[in-house]
Amino acid sequence: MTSNNSRNRYQKVKQNGEATHEEEQKEYEEFAIRESPLTTLLDSSIHIRTIYHIFVVILLVLICDTVIFDLVENGKINIGLSVVATGFGDMRRVFKLWVYEFIVSMSLYPLLLAYSWIGAISRKYPALRPTVVMLGVIGVIALEVAVAAVPLFDMGRKQLPVGSTAIVTGEMLRFMMKLVAIASACGPRCLNGTPLPTFKLHIYFMFAPTLIYRDQYPRTKKIRWGVVVFHLLEVAAVIFYISFLWEIVIVPNWADYGKEKTVAISTVVRSMFASVLPGTISVLCGFYCVLHSWLNAWSEMLKFGDRLFYEDWWTASCFSQYFRRWNLVVHSWLRDHIYLPLATYAGRSLATFSVFFVSAIAHEVFMTLMCGFFYPVLLVQFGVLGVILVPLTEKAGRRYPNAFNLLLWFGFSIGNGILWSLYPMEYFARRNCPPSENDSFFIPKSWTCPEVVLKPNWTFQNPLF
Length: 465
Description:
The chain is mainly alpha-helical. It is built from 18 helices and 2 strands.
């Protein structure tokens, strides 16, 4: 039933001439048994598997470099495990917050049963229907607030480590989106008398690697526990990989930022460009960790057949393709619950802007809670530059795919280098700079401390003469 509603909304958008070229070709795709693109590429192409091996070798070389240097220089071995232990500290508190989020999310099912009883009454008295609908909307909003309120209050009262905050915040946003998906699918059933799904299906959806609710999903026949273990080992390896890059690249470049009253602009620029490569590698590894390894591990454990969590975003030649392909799990939710409803009545432009706005705010909430301060770098990159680049690269990217794919990768790398520079700058500035009465959660401290200056007697020299 939910599938038909979404498909009907899509057809209405298409009839109004507001569907994109890619949507016109793909139309509305349902769930099917299929592997992730990287799984297919790794199994079918020795060249792609070699690239996978190269990333493993880079990690091993970095480990050898650090281990040998520290052993010779200091007589000890440092391989970044301290960063992992620190970043994922206070796990007992994390578990308590997750249990709270889960219990609130599960409470939707008995509320749906009660709402179904109220819906039966409204069918006898049609005049009550608008009031009952409004009651349902208010109930969903109340649950959304309940899921978010306690974790936000708790983390605001006492900051969790970065990795632990990422877990709590990520799960909070995931449960909130799942509540919307279930409510939009089952709310109309409560009003028209259609039977609700079973409690078992409700639980399954809470853990299933999708944000789109269906009464049934394509299932595989058995669980391959070897595949599960392999993907979980990949998750652990990527966490260690990123922590190791932080330990050997980011910390040496930015740990002393703010200890001196002034810093040369050449030092800042050099450190920012030094962060481009590790920042890009870290984001690629993070993508692989979450959208490939983690989701494939859960898919295998739950026999969830559709593993198309992303598409070949790395071949995109325009930013609209990149944003659609990077994360199909979230993209599908944004399409069904924001884009299609708005595009049907308000037009594609407003719907697209709303999708970017909601996504940018969610990303910024995630980064703010994880860092412990408000510094809207990602909000500007995603919600401003991203919106601008989508129409600018739409036609030209399709005409000159190779050139614009190169441009996309250049922007991707520089953008991540900026993220991996400005956030550490602010983080260490707040730790190293002396306290001030002007300190604020919302005003970046790195703007005023330290002072970024040119070298004394600096002059521009023409390199051609």
